[in-house]
Amino acid sequence: MKRIIVPIFMSLFLLLMPVLAEAHPGRTDANGGHYCRTNCAKWGLENGEYHYHNGGGSDSKPAATFVRR
């Protein structure tokens, strides 16, 4: 019985795990933002552009607020 339960449990675990997670490099400061230093165009930003991260929750606020420098 154990031989059947373990593979079933592992299969369900792998199916229920998130398959894709997207994030970008860089930590945020005490205000919840940071300057873009690398691969900025990939994220739709300019080099040295400061922007905030508000957590990207389900509320109506945008996930990021951009401040041009």
Automatic annotation (TrEMBL):
Top-rank taxon, per record: Bacteria
Signal peptide annotation: 1-23
Keyword list, A-Z: Signal
InterPro entries: YHYH_dom_bact (IPR047773)
UniProt name for this protein: YHYH domain-containing protein
Organism lineage: Bacteria, Bacillati, Bacillota, Bacilli, Bacillales
